[in-house]
Amino acid sequence: MKKGFYHIGVTIKIAAGLLAAVILLCSAGCSFITITSTDRPKNTEARETAQNTEAPTPLKYSVSFDENEVFETELDRQASERIDGIIRSAVGIMNTMEERLIGNPDSCTYVTSRTAKETLSDPLDIKIYEDVERCAEGYLDYYVDHHEYGKDMFYSVTKAIDALRIDRPELFLYCDMKGETDAYGTSYTLSYYMPNDWLSKVTEDKGAVKEAVDLYYKVVDRIIAKMPAGLDNYEKCCYFAIVISLSTKYDIVQDSLFDAYQAYNVLIKGKAVCKGYAEAMLELMRCAGIRCEIVTGEAPSEGRHAWNRVFVDGEPYYVDVTWYDNDNFLENFDDGKLNYLFMTEEELLISGYVPDPEETD
Fold first, then answer.
1. DSSP string of 177-233?
2. Which of 74, 130, 161, 171 has the fewest CB atoms within 10 Å of its CB?
3. Whole-prediction pTM value?
4. Number of domains in the chain
């Protein structure tokens, strides 16, 4: 006989006694009898299992969203709709990360270096730099007339804008200097574009431009604000790479020629090519105060390419978010991370990358 049926006779007797008591109570005028079940285990084996079950290990990384959040503006709501689900997924993927690959916590720090503006020596170049910076920040008109200066302004404007592009790349999300040449030289106008029409169509509707740019920065700000608490800078690099990969599909078919090269299309439209990926990584890293640069050159068997360089313990490491965002990204996170995040210079060159020669002063 099975052990579970050993006391069946006693059980039947007890049940019969309880039934009789119930009948007796009802006959004495009891109107209701409530029998309440308990949540205890139904048998010894289940009880022992419940007692021996350990509490789940808390996740290392977490993010919190208020389901009833009241947004200050419509753009805040749109930014939330665009990026919140991606942030949740990114944090989930971060919890599959193993031991850090390189460096010590907070070793990927921002290192103050000489700005490109400081390389300018001609007062005219510096003036143009400062004027364009001020006007671009305020969405103001600006014009450089070569007749005023009595010479062609190509070299002065080019040097000033190249320096500003290095120091303030975010300004060129929506504006640039457009030249017009006559028989005596070239004059330049600060021209504005919708971010997704970069350099393809000048617009006079600066309000619409500002709204598009504001949405972009709402998304950037939310990515930063919703980072899991306590990330060191190495982990922030990983977080940004994952967010960008989840946000974006590599796509050379764009609405206009230059769309694919902008961080805007990565974070807002979800499609870009390598330069867009690299620009988005640069944007997020700079906003987090981490030193990051864009590197261009030749990729293994692929032709022209762009990727990023970060600094850990003073040493350069290379991050190729474009190739990191591969078909196995979700299924094989560690493999992608090992292959394309935090490559040493030696690993970069062995893999077949050929960076462009760097210009030196």
1. EEEEEETTEEEEEEEE--GGGTTT---S-HHHHHHHHHHHHHHHHHHHHTSPTT--H
2. 74
3. 0.75
4. 1
